[in-house]
Amino acid sequence: MKSLQEYHIPFTGLKEGKHQFEFDIDQRFFNEFEYSLVKNGQLKVELELDKQETMLILQFVIKGSIFLNCDICLSDFPTVVDSREQQIVKFSDDENLEHDTDEIIILGKNEHEVDVSTLIYEYINLAVPYFHRCDDQGNTQWCDKEMVEKLSKLSGNQKDEEEENTAADPRWDALKNIKNN
User: Fold this and answer.
1) What is the rounded CA–CA span in Å between residue 60 and residue 49?
2) Which among 139, 26, 142, 125 has a CA at the least distance from the CA of 78?
């Protein structure tokens, strides 16, 4: 976690108003998180910190690409990330106050810096699509063509078997006609 020190922003010396920060994200960043969905990527994070008297408003713009394992052929392929997020950081001297929520981070009055590494990590993982597939399956330079061919052969055999099984029983044909009415 020592390499994540560059993502700690000291805000005590900053004047009220907007301040710009930029971070480059690569494989070293993702290596710091043990169970990361993303293992590699090239991203640029532009952070606008709006310091106010009682809070900080953080505006994140994350752009670049990450590498994911394809759900079909299991090879790595790039996926574009373009994400915009906002986080509010409030200050409190009440130690019994409920801690962080999804929308608001609570810092004590004695705190002098905010760590944005976990926020950046979470926002990148939120940008990961649910299904990891390339746009043109089997036709990109990243696709494992042997695996795609083998899968298409195997899925073709299963379809033939399913068609044989469904065509064998005429009672199912009568039931299919019911939903057409």
Assistant:
1) 9
2) 142
Integer Cα distance of 24 and 46 in angstroms: 9
SS (H, E, C) the chain: CHHHHHHEEECCCCCCEEEEEEEEECHHHHHCCCCCCCCEEEEEEEEEEEECCCEEEEEEEEEEEEEEECCCCCCEEEEEEEEEEEEEEEEECCCCCCCCCCCEEEEECCCCEEECHHHHHHHHHHCCCCCCCCCCCCCCCCCCHHHHHHHHHHHHHHHHHHHHHHHCCHHHHHHHHHCCC
Tell me: pLDDT of 116 over 70. yes
Contact 95, 108 (CB under 8 A): yes
pLDDT tens track for 85-105: 999 998 877 665 556 666 788
pTM, 2 dp? 0.74
